[in-house]
């Protein structure tokens, strides 16, 4: 009976309701899928950052061994063994460490004779295509394994000329030309192909003017290159350790080396078509390009997440059916509806009265909006001044780079070498200033967009302080300032984002050096607990120009400076304190300032010992 009263209209309601239910059902399922993909991509980015940090540690290990050579006129085999044995015990992913001296052909016999005093069978060797070791062919230069320490017996033997293998020679030449650490392509360490996959990393060591040389190398010092510190790293062990916690999430990793487009090789993992989610990240590792493919076989759906779209679909179906039934019932109650319309009319009359009252309130609100508009215009003016200052800051190093470059191009043949070097230093310094400006602007953009991430690592507080002191002391001396560092630390390490902590302290110290003339700059670092949480207190103070109480209110605001005019005495864009404050908040801290005009300033903050 009910459906017969309004059959077409009720049918329309049902069709619209069912269509809406199906549409919402599909949209909900798609949003859940997109959210899972977004979460998975974010986790892959985080794991990639962790992997990059561990790879950077490998560079530090080799540079540490290279520093041993730089600090000593001659490193004998025993010193090399003592130093490298500690590294092999501490880092299980290091397969072996080697010293490869540069040996020209005319010194080959002399090197072999010296080594044969300890190892009678020592000889420069190379591998045949069948894998047999034979005496090395005559070449203009060699890079033999002269010192070697390994955790296993499966290593390159002493005397093996690493440069005889083309993949290694390619990495050696790249490191030699660039002066930077470079890596080889895929290497198998096991007795069978693929048992343990890894890479060789080469750190070049060059001669320098005041270093004494043993007689055997004095004749080759003109070649500049002294040799290479080489490390064999087991990627299986390293990546297994980093990604072990992902096993319970069914997440796997496949790493490709795509440096040579025609020779893409797998460094870690095995290909699979059995996955639910997939994402791709990339890394540049010591001159080689890696592609990381992250797979997840099953997504972490909760029971409610799985049935939620179906529950929503059923709910909308029920609502649609209920609306159809209610509409059918209401169609038979016209009189009742008319009565309600009358009542609604009276209510609307009262609403009109309330609306007039609301208009008066809105008038007051409009006055408040005018005030807000004035404030917005002030903010816009501050932003315009900031952009003008930024333009000035960018043009200054660019003009220096262009001007000195034109001089070198037009008069390069007649300018003395000393002036040429001086001009190149100006170009280099201006380029570094320009790069720092761009880095600061990009970091502001990342902070404003919420894309700035934190990466927690354990790091030595004492090491951070010494690095900062070495970096800031020249800035302090520039204005005849005295730098004082006071450290009373009971805890050796801190677990936080080291890069952001170092940037905060460097910004505060460099500001102190800039605004202080012939004064004193003090850095205080000490342990301090807050609310039963152990942490470290940092304070940077100076005896410089100080800050007025009104100006302190806009110290940490973006697009705002104490002196924002183009004719201001001190250079800078004014984003350093903004970045420092944001970084500090990301590390669970807050920068506070205490200053008096013409008496100096003090910036301080507290951070927990562990960010996690």
Description:
The protein has 612 residues and is an alpha+beta fold. The protein is 50% helix and 20% strand. It has 14 helices and 21 strands. Strands 1, 6, 7, 8, 9 and 10 form a six-stranded antiparallel beta sheet that branches. It has a five-stranded mixed beta sheet with strand order 16-18-19-21-20, with helices on one face. A four-stranded antiparallel beta sheet has the order 12-11-14-13. The longest helix is centred in the middle third of the chain and has 78 residues, at 334-411. It is extended. The two termini are 67 Å apart. Mean pLDDT is 79; it is low at 564-568.
Task: List strands and helices in order, with pairings.
Layout: H1 2-5, H2 7-71, H3 77-90, E1 94-101, E2 103-104, H4 108-116, E3 125-127, E4 133-135, E5 141-142, E6 147-150, H5 166-178, E7 182-183, E8 187-188, E9 197-206, H6 215-218, E10 225-234, H7 235-242, E11 251-257, E12 265-268, E13 277-285, E14 288-296, H8 303-331, H9 334-411, H10 417-449, E15 457-460, H11 461-478, E16 482-488, E17 493-496, H12 498-514, E18 520-530, E19 533-542, H13 549-552, H14 576-586, E20 592-596, E21 600-608
Parallel strand pairs: 16-18
Antiparallel strand pairs: 1-6, 1-10, 2-5, 3-4, 7-9, 8-9, 9-10, 11-12, 11-14, 13-14, 15-17, 18-19, 19-21, 20-21
Helix pairs in contact: 2-8, 9-10, 10-14, 11-12, 12-14
